[in-house]
Amino acid sequence: MSDQTLASPFAASIHATKPNLAVIGAGVVGLCTALAAQKEGYHVTLLDSNPPGKAASFGNAGYLATELMDPLGTKKVLKMAPKLWLDPKGPVCLPWKHFTKAAPWLLKFVAASSDERAEYSRKALLSLNAEAVPAWHRLMQDVGGEEHLISDGYLLVWEDPSKKTDAREHLAQMQRFNIPCEYVEGARLAELEPTLAKRISHALYYPKATRVSDPFTVCQLLYQAFQERGGVFIQEHVMSLQAGTHNIEVHLARDQQAFGQVIICGGAWSKQLLEQVGLTVPLEAERGYHVTYTGQEQLLNHVIGAAERRFVMSPLASGLRSVGMSEIGGVRLPPIQKRFAVLREHTAALLPDVTKDGIQVEEWMGHRPTLPDSLPVIDQHPSFPRLAFAFGHQHLGLTHAAITAELMLAKIQKQPASISLHAMRVDRF
User: Fold this and answer.
1) How many domains does the chain have?
2) Best exposed site among 67, 87, 113, 229 by fewest CB in 10 Å?
């Protein structure tokens, strides 16, 4: 073992005796947390009804979106919401079948959109964003996967020339927070992305923005490292939990096990587990859709965000992926097929080459775990500290996964955290 490895924040506490630890949820947050726990000397069992990395972590854009500092709910967003909801091609969707169930969450979302509360969330998101990419570098260095972190930049593009003021105002905000960013148009924009449609008027270029090669590939790499370090994966549904002073009992579909520490990283499915241990959180499944054009990743040099259409195109190892929609639809409804058609239309408008014959297109829908204030829960049960939580990262699950793992392990071991977790308490609602 190298001196560099021992000096890492993930360095194993080799001589300490640690209890058996279970991580519920094998998405990217759960995988990062499991590896962080192993590095601290825990024997870790990973539990999920799906294969590792196959739920929400599978289909994201693979982009570490550290410039996204605004919560989903602000006064500006509330003013725009009716128009966005009524637009059949818009990014915000609420199926009528889910409206009644979503109503309490929506009321809390409106309350969290006040100027004061939005600023509170913004400060917390900024603190996570500042630590996100360095934490990913530490983790990928530890598992030998640094080549999967690619810092080749991001472009946020506008089609309407009359919205150059919007871009410059956004630029000013980025500059206030020392985020490297520049305004581009004309020949410079064409040089950066020659295949983009001519209808693109101008853009903001983030030269240091980072992405991963492919989110599922990264999850597979993390899972392989977890297995090589003695981790156990049980692919079963977690039926219930029973929290106690000395251990946490986990009831599976075909088994029952007790652990000295349990961390729930169950994404949009975390809510029902918390209810079993006396906690209620307003967690909603914000459904996202993607279409992936197999073998077409060479069409783009950067991740592209469309400011007006509100979707993202990303050149991944698995293909060119377009990701979008914020659909408050719960975890039970099937995908709504017209969402895929809208994404295809948006993609073709900005990147006409994807309409060529013979291109294979894959469609997918997943569930983002979203709380009304856009902040995750990174905390312990107030009465049973052996039960901890790391979920609710909305659009930033991949972005914040590695730093969440570090913060979670610091929390359960009563070590100093690199940032304040007060805004991410489980009982804040």
Assistant:
1) 2
2) 87
Q: Are residues 232 and 340 in the same domain?
A: no
What backbone phi and psi angles, to 5 degrees, belong to 30?
-65, -40
pLDDT value of position 12: 42
Residue 190 and residue 90 share a domain: yes
Report the pLDDT averaged over residues 370-388. 98
Token pair listed for 134: 């360095």
Q: What is the CATH number of the domain that holds 16?
A: 3.50.50.60
Of 328, 353, 370, the residue at which a domain comes to its end is 370
Does residue 388 fall inside a structural domain? yes
pLDDT computed for residue 402 by the predictor: 99
The answer on 44 and 181 residing in a single domain is no
For residue 82, the model assigns a pLDDT of: 87
**pLDDT mean over 192-208:** 98
Q: What is the mean pLDDT of residues 294-302?
A: 97
Task: Identify whether 167 is part of a domain.
Answer: yes
53 confidence band (pLDDT: 50, 70, 90):
very high
| Domain span holding position 310 | 74-113+148-209+283-370
Mean pLDDT calculated for residue range 97-108:
96
Q: Does residue 11 sit within a domain?
A: yes
Average pLDDT, the chain: 95
pTM given for the model? 0.94
Give CA–CA dist 299/356, Å, rounded: 12
Q: Identify the CATH number of the domain in which residue 186 sits.
A: 3.30.9.10
Domain end call among 346, 370, 394: 370
Same domain, 204 and 328: yes
Going by pLDDT thresholds of 50, 70 and 90, the confidence category of residue 85 is confident
Q: Report how far residue 276's alpha carbon sits from residue 240's, in angstroms, rounded to the nearest whole number.
A: 7
Domain co-membership, 198 together with 318? yes
Question: How large is the average pLDDT for residues 251-280?
Answer: 97
Number of Cβ within 10 Å of residue 405's Cβ equals 29
Question: In this structure, is residue 65 part of a structural domain?
Answer: no
